[in-house]
Amino acid sequence: MTMTRRNFLSASAAVAAAPVLGAGAWGAPLPREADIVVIGAGVAGIAAARRIQAANRRVVVIEATGQVGGRCLTDTTTFDMPFDRGARWLHNPDTSAMIKLARGTGLDISPAPPGQKIRIGRRNARAGEIEEFLAALVRANRAIDDASRGKADVSCGSALPKNLGDWAATTEFMLGANAVGKDLNDISVIDKARGQDRNNAPIACRQGLGTLIAKLGEQVPLALSTPASRMAWSGRDVTVETPAGRVAARAAVITVSSNVLAAGNIKFTPDLPKRQLDAAAKLSLGSYDRIGLQLPGNPLGLARDDIIVEQSNSTRTALLFANIGSSSLCSIDIAGSFGRDLSTQGEPAMVAFAVEWLSKLFGSEAAAAVKKSSATRWNAAPFALGAMSSAAPGAQPSRKILTEPVGCMFLAGEATHETLWGTVDGAWESGERAAEAALRKIGALRDEPAAPAREPKPRRRTRS
Predict the structure, then answer these.
(1) Which residues pair with 331 in a beta bridge?
(2) pTM of the full predicted structure?
(3) How confident is the model at residue 448 (pLDDT cuts 50, 70, 90)?
(4) All residues at 6 or more sequence positions from 337 whose CB lies less than 8 Å from its CB, including other chains
């Protein structure tokens, strides 16, 4: 029996590995001056740069790696079709400005395909078993929402009902590791409850989200393979030091991940305020990686774009995205504490787990059929250091802290979005927000009264 995406699929993470793949490495010579300098050519950086260009101000984007996209990275060479090593879905097509832009790029933008199943050992779950699982998800979500209205912010794990039975581990995987890259014991109930619905008609790009971000950044002045090593800042200007020289600007938008910021990989003169550094540390990135396997001949006997999870009894589990786009490519996603521990063992151990896990669910034919493999290791990627942010218990206010200006510098990225954290959509909105703040700082926008905040739509918990 299959289930609807709304009932089943928590948003896949914005994660990937670190090789220089995907978008071509193009760029402009590094200028010595700009009105606004943007650090990072990921989703937030491209959004910020486009907004600054729209205001007819000089901008340059300084990117440490050799490609555009950040944690949206599409590998077009390893397999016989694009492999999204990073983010896989966009969300909320009725309200997302990014999706509207995506539809004008000429790329194939379409609803993510349905067709999710649960595996219990070597068989698919029966209708009654799926109903039990969906009921467990509803009860767990309701308990987390209820706990978020309490006096203290606690972990999602502590709020779970104690009688989820055989579906306890699967529920925890779907709501925790698979959704945000961390186990529920490490996630704030307030942060989780405030997160806008991620299952609202997700959208995919057939050519890959990394390809899409590169397309949207085609007209942006870029300096690739140019890491920012130091930023000297004040309330009036900023100077960025790179191996290719210095760039002086009147303001800066900084879009590096919360882990990179907290790690001090970019030095600041004077130092960043402790308030911002502490906030970044409390919004550390979870772990989410993909193991791509090419399995010719469909040895698993699955349909195009089937998504499978198992009834598990521990954190040693995964999510399967099979026969991607009618190809022989399958992706086995690992996340949370188990995924983090496995990724530290290296790619051979990750591939071995994937083959073992598929063999357990579908038989030994899977092991013999593997023609090619590739695994991501985002936690080891020096300019990412993880997947997507989630707040520790008590740390949800840190997201708003990261939106506060620091002199003439403005932070952006998914970690700074209070409701769409962990998503490509949230990263894009944060980049536009930070760009507008920087433009106001340099007098390029009139300071208009802020529009009333748009309330996020309630997350749907009922079964359809």
Answers:
(1) 292, 321
(2) 0.90
(3) low
(4) 177, 182, 183, 287, 315
